[in-house]
Amino acid sequence: MKNRSILLVEDNADDVALMLHALKSNRISNQISVAEDGEQALHILFADAVEPAKQPALILLDLNLPKVEGLEVLRQLRAHADTRLIPVVVLTSSLEQSDLHNAYGCGANSYVRKPVDFEEFVQVTRDLGHYWLQLNYPALEA
């Protein structure tokens, strides 16, 4: 059976705490791994030759990350057979058109702006979890 965990790639500790609280508030009980920068995210996904069955079911990726930026993480994910089909939601505060176009150009499945209001953040988290972890049918590995 495919792993149903979530990898949250976020360097802001307040946003991590907010996301974890919002997931819990929405009764999304999937295992959550947190990478604090792009380098750590790539290490989690590649360094230990993670079996495809243990890859996360969803990656929530910030764009502005230390060490390795979010777009580069996305490029590397899409370049490897074991990770190219994992759904990636770019979750960012940026509304720059260039960020939006670049994210989709690099293979993002979705681009969501982080709400500032807590109630909106909880709603967005619920919607993301419901769609990507319950409604969406993930691609089967070849």
TrEMBL record:
Cite the SUPFAM superfamilies for this sequence: CheY-like
- DNA-binding recorded as keyword: no
Domain Response regulatory positions: 5-129
Kindly list the positions at which 4-aspartylphosphate occurs in this protein.
Answer: 62
Superkingdom per UniProt: Bacteria
Question: One Pfam family, short name please?
Answer: Response_reg
Going by the UniProt record, its keywords in alphabetical order are: Phosphoprotein
Matches recorded under SMART domains: REC
Q: Which residues form a coiled coil?
A: none
Listed InterPro entries: CheY-like_superfamily, Sig_transdc_resp-reg_receiver, TCS_response_regulator
What is the recorded name of this protein? Response regulator
Annotated organism of origin = Halopseudomonas sabulinigri
